[in-house]
Amino acid sequence: MSSIDEVISSLSANSNAVTDLQGQIHGTTAMAEEMLKQLQEIGLQGKAAALGAVKDQLAACDAFAAALQNKLSEAMTSAAAATGQ
Question: How far apart are alpha carbons 10 and 16 in whole angstroms?
Fold first, then answer.
């Protein structure tokens, strides 16, 4: 049977993984923005529009990751409260 401390430790590891994921999403977004700018500069509007959609989808992914991070934080707070019972 797991202890509450093990649950908290696992939640912390999950939170760290989400933080890493957010960094990767931000890096990919920066790459997409740079490529989008280059495509617009050379007049490839169709490809630029498609990459604009990718950028929007990455923004949604970032928002989901932020919401997940908040829920993990709430879970850690709840688990910590359980140690005091």
Answer: 10
